[in-house]
Amino acid sequence: MPDGDFLLALFRFLGRLVCVCAGLVFIALGAVGLGVAYQPEHEFVRSASPVAVRFVVVALKLAGQTENLRQVAEAALGGVFLRFGAAPIGLILFVGAILPGRNRNEIPDEGDGGDSALGGGFSTVAAAPKSSIARKIRKQAGAMARKGSPIDAAEYCLDSGMMDEAADYFIAAEQLVRAAEVRHDQNRFTESAELYLRADLPESAARIFAQQEMHIEAAEAYSLAGNPSVAAELFEEAGEHLRAAESYEESGFPRNAAQAYVKAGMWEKAAICMEQTVAEEMSSSVTGAQNPQVQKFVRMAGNLFERAGQDERAEAVLVRGEAFAEAAAVALKNGRKEQAVEHYMEAKDAPRAADLMRDLGQHEQAARVLAEHHRDIGDDEQAAVHYEE
After folding, report:
1. Do 302 and 325 meet the contact criterion of CB atoms below 8 Å apart?
2. pLDDT tens, 36-78?
3. 85 has pLDDT over 70
4. Which of 79-83, 103-107, 215-219 has the highest mean pLDDT?
């Protein structure tokens, strides 16, 4: 430390020490003065009073008083000043001495990120030294680095409040984590996160990026850290739907992946993921394909395959999910009337099946289907008409 700064610090320390001692003395005198005035017979007061009188006598001698010292001291001990003034003055001196003073050179470091990563406030970075002192520190740190001790140079700069130089020396020493911590203390969060990435600590980088609402960078870092589900959410917040879908798929959430693929306009990918969702839901549902939620997903998968131009796959997933009426509509759209008839029969939609049979020239089979249908619903008269047909 330079001589001037050392002497200044020494004087400040001695001044604080004197104030602490004086404050304690005044507090003690005030307590004894109150005791003499209100509890003179108390054991503490009887034992402390002679000491206090001697102290006041010494103070009077130092002040130039030479006559009747003891009488004046005893009168002062029971006087108004010591009773009501000494203790408050002592308390002020004591508290003022022990409270830390503010360094005039210490200013908040705004950095490149403004508020801190925890939500704002002043930086805790040490104040930078004055320019003349800074030059000496740089010179000494440079000498350390040239001798092969960049870490020592970094620590020396850090202790001196020269954060930029400290970070540079830490980087030169390949102490990237320390450099990242320094940049974070400076509120230079982006640089801190990038240094954590270089140090192969992507999760630390990801948290910082996320706190700064840098969603894409945070998502990429979480992907590197092997956390694709969090990455997917961040990609989605950033509007990167394709990358979100891929991350959801990687993390085993096909339904979320399907929704993200839809937003990205990737119909076939969305359909495949929804098909996986159907299989998972059917295996976990007691009612299987008859579960209303499963039926909803089945229809979504079929619709997505249709939008992707994959009608055969659409029909197949609808049949597996027992959505036979929708499967018949897909078959019919592609001119496959006989297959549509089978699907309508599975869906127990005899009127539509019979209409298609007639289109195919199968009048007798159509009549038999309708006759059995009306018989089953209790319409015997109409059943007889179709049996006759």
Report:
1. no
2. 666 667 777 667 667 766 766 666 666 666 666 666 666 665 6
3. no
4. 215-219
Q: What is the pTM of this model?
A: 0.58
Could you tell me if residue 309 is left (phi over 0), alpha (psi between -120 and 50 degrees) or otherwise beta?
A: left
Q: Tell me the C-alpha distance between 155 and 160, whole Å.
A: 8
Tell me the C-alpha distance between 383 and 389, whole Å.
10
Exposure string for 104-140, b = 16+ CB within 10 A, e = fewer: eeeeebebebebbbeeeeebebbebbeeebbeebeee
